Amino acid sequence: MLLTSLQKLGFTSYEAKVFVALVKNESATVSTLHLDSGVPNSAIYGALKKLEQKGIIEFQNTKPMRYRCILPEDAILKLKRDYGDECDNVLDQLNRIYGECSTNKSEELMWTINGIRNVTDRVMQMFEGAQKEIIILSSSTPFYKLADRYKSLKKDYTTMIGILNKKTTDEGVSLKLISSCEEEARKLSNIVPLASVRINSMEKNPLYLKSFVVVVDNSEMLVDILKDDDGEADLTAIWTNGKEFSSTMSHLLNAKWETSTEYHPL
C-alpha cells in the first residue's frame, strides 16, 4: 500500500522502494539499499538521483558514498508543496488552452460521472457554487449510511454538512431537503438547523428510491443512481449545467416539495 501511494505521488516503482529502504536506515550505502529494497544495483543510482532532485534525500561524499532521507514529515511537506506548485502550473496552461478552444455554443449536454468519490466531489462543487437555492431529493438509502460503508467518504460527508451549514447560515442560501425516511429527516434537521426538511411519504405506494437528485439555482443538476453489483455499492451520476434540463427538474422537485409532509422534530 505504501509503495502504491508513493507511486501515486509521482515516484517510480524503483524510487518508491529505494526511498522506503532509506527511511528504514539512518544512512545507507548502495549495497545496503540493494539488499533492503530488492532494486538492482544498476537502477539504484538513477533512483537516488531522482530522489535527490526531489530534495528529499542527502548524500555524504565518503567511500563508499552514504545516503539518507530527510525527516519523513519534511519530505511529505516538500512533496505537497512541489505538487501544489505543479498543479497550479498545469491549471494555468489548461485554462489557457480551454479559453482558446471554447466556443459560445449553447447546446445543453448531459455528462456521466462514475465512481462514488467522483460523484461526491461533484456534489460538493455544486454546493459550494450555490448562490440562492439547493434542492435535494434523497434516496431511500441515506447518504450518511452510504458513507459508513466507505471510510474515505466519512470525511466527505462531514465536509458536505459543513458546506451546507455555511451556505444556509452565512450566505442565506435556501436549502430544501425532501427525505425518503424519517430517520434521515431527523438527522439532517439536527445537523443542518436552517434546512427546510420534508418527508416524501410513500406509505400507500412504497417505493425504494435508488437515486437522489440535487438541483442548484435552477441551473445545475445531478441525478445519481446507486448500483449494487455483487454486494458492492457504487455510484453513477448524470450531471448537467444546462438551464432547460435543470429548471425542469427544479420545477418537478418543487412540485414534490408541495406534496411532501413537513417534518417537525419531536
**Whole-number tally of structural domains:** 2
Query: Terminal Cα separation, in Å?
Result: 47 Å
CATH superfamily of the largest domain: Endonuclease Chain A
Give the neighbour order of strands across the main sheet: 3-9-8-7-4-5-6-10
Low-pLDDT stretches = none
CATH class group of the largest domain: Alpha Beta
* Number of E-state strands: 10
InterPro entries: TrmB-like (IPR051797), Tscrpt_reg_TrmB_N (IPR002831), WH-like_DNA-bd_sf (IPR036388), WH_DNA-bd_sf (IPR036390)
Pfam families: TrmB
Organism: Methanolobus mangrovi
Domain Transcription regulator TrmB N-terminal: 6-73
Task: Explain what this protein looks like in three dimensions.
This is Helix-turn-helix domain-containing protein. It is a single chain. The chain is α+β, with helices and mostly antiparallel strands. The protein has 2 domains: 2-72, Orthogonal Bundle (Arc Repressor Mutant, subunit A), CATH 1.10.10; 111-262, Endonuclease Chain A (Endonuclease, Chain A). Helices cover 52% and strands 20% of the residues. It has 10 helices and 10 strands. The chain has helices at 2-8, 13-24, 30-37, 41-53, 72-101, 116-129, 143-149, 151-169, 182-191, 243-259, and strands at 57-60, 66-69, 111-114, 133-137, 174-179, 196-199, 211-216, 220-229, 232-240, 261-262. Strands 3-9-8-7-4-5-6-10 form an 8-stranded mixed beta sheet, with helices on both faces. Strands 1-2 form a two-stranded antiparallel ribbon. α2 packs across α3 (30-37). The protein is elongated.
